[in-house]
Amino acid sequence: MIGAVLAAGLEAAHVQVVSAGIITTPGIAYLTRANHFSAGIVISASHNPWQDNGIKVFGADGYKLSDQLEHEIEADIFAHLEQLAAEAADAAVSTSDMLPGEQALRDQYAEWLADLVCATDFSRLRVLVDCANGAASAMAPEVFRDVGLNADFVHIGPNGRNINAGCGALHPENVARAVAAANGKYDLGITFDGDADRALFSDASGRVVNGDAVLLLAARDMKTHVRLYDDTVVATTMSNMGLEAALQRGGIRMLRAPVGDKYVLEEMLKTGATLGGEQSGHILFRDMDTTTGDGILTALRVLEVMARTGESLAELVADMKVFPQEIKNIPVREKLPLEQLPKVMDTIRAAERDLSGNGRVVVRYSGTEKLARVMIEAATEEAMRRHTDAIANAIQQAIGV
């Protein structure tokens, strides 16, 4: 329904609209640039529940719009809200099955992905894939079949309301348990989020492998093949100190950007870095000139390294010693600047003093929900929990729901 209303509005403004059907967010980014569209638009809940369906916009270059431009568009919409609502009520809205051209666009994207790893023999690998009842449900089976990968799929029946519901990259432990219970049937598990711009993994023993470990694996492989520009990786403030230490042992520098794949990309473009990403599974491979994170591409790159080296996922990341880390979400009434909350700031500063050199404190608001996120890393679990609880309680008392 959202897509039909949006298309009706665009066509009323004399914009030609072409549908790619059910496809991933990075699929739209690729198709927009490859086919010289003026813009690409994705309707998705991303990694959130279906009630949070929203609109992502890509420019003609395949990149997400800047924060400034997004704010200008939102301001313009709200300034004309009553008028727009009246016009939308009169717009002709229709829904249909797949339209002419949709399959061709999806096939174009699938073929591009498959061609990137066409020289790799995946025949010895077997994987279990969780598609989160989202866009990967339509794309991942086609791509993995095209590259000759033996894969079984779960949560591939989207109905508009079950996206991310107890499955996918927000619940990687589900696939991890299934892989472990299969007693050696699978070499790894793969989990996508709803719009498939992120991927998390499970090794053969059922241990969850997150985006930090993927960055380590990819960075080493890219450095070996002289594809890691300036031996530099861009991560975020949420990436574990264990990643930084493991990269340093391999002569690789790690830069930190604010949380959000667009901010990782900004730092990559500024520094020329060819690899960046987030602990949550957004990984950006600029050696392939991609413009956004792509979960299916990330999975293919991980599988490619495994197939080429003959090493298991666990072996490839075995030396990364993770600092105890906890992330706690606190529902809030409003997102006041933390500097305006004296007791919260006092608690944060006390934690920073105590953990100086042996841990990290990151407190930020969610970009999509009314949540404050508290992340603590420490040398011991006791210190981690103590400081996490103290800061979370201070936020709860100040602005909690």
Structure commentary:
The protein is α/β, with parallel strands linked by helices and 401 residues long. Among the domains are: 2-99, 3-Layer(aba) Sandwich (Alpha-D-Glucose-1,6-Bisphosphate, Chain A, domain 3); 325-399, 2-Layer Sandwich (TATA-Binding Protein). The protein has 14 helices and 14 strands. The strands form five sheets. It has a five-stranded mixed sheet, with helices on both faces. Strands 12-14-13 form a three-stranded antiparallel sheet, covered by helices on one side. A two-stranded antiparallel sheet has the order 1-2. α9 links the parallel β8 (232-236) and β9. The protein starts with a helix and ends with a helix. The relative contact order is 0.11.
As a whole number of angstroms, the C-alpha radius of gyration is 22 Å
The ordered string of helix (H) and strand (E) elements is HHEEHHHEHEHEEEHEHEHEEHHEHEEH
Task: Note the main sheet.
Answer: 5 strands, mixed
The overall pLDDT, averaged over residues, is 93
The amount of helix comes to: 40-55%
- The number of E-state strands comes to 14
What's the CATH C level of the domain at 2-99? Alpha Beta
CATH architecture of the domain at 2-99: 3-Layer(aba) Sandwich
Number of helices: 14
> For the largest beta sheet, what order do the strands appear in spatially?
4-3-5-6-7
Strand content: 15-25%
Give the termini distance in whole angstroms.
Answer: 32 Å
The CATH H-level homologous superfamily of the domain at 2-99: Alpha-D-Glucose-1,6-Bisphosphate, subunit A, domain 3
Note the topology:
Blueprint: H1 2-12, H2 25-34, E1 39-44, E2 54-59, H3 67-79, H4 81-90, H5 102-116, E3 126-130, H6 136-146, E4 150-154, H7 172-181, E5 188-192, E6 199-203, E7 208-209, H8 211-224, E8 232-236, H9 241-249, E9 253-257, H10 261-271, E10 275-277, E11 283-285, H11 295-309, H12 313-316, E12 325-331, H13 342-355, E13 359-365, E14 371-378, H14 381-399
Parallel strand pairs: 3-4, 3-5, 8-9
Antiparallel strand pairs: 1-2, 5-6, 6-7, 10-11, 12-14, 13-14
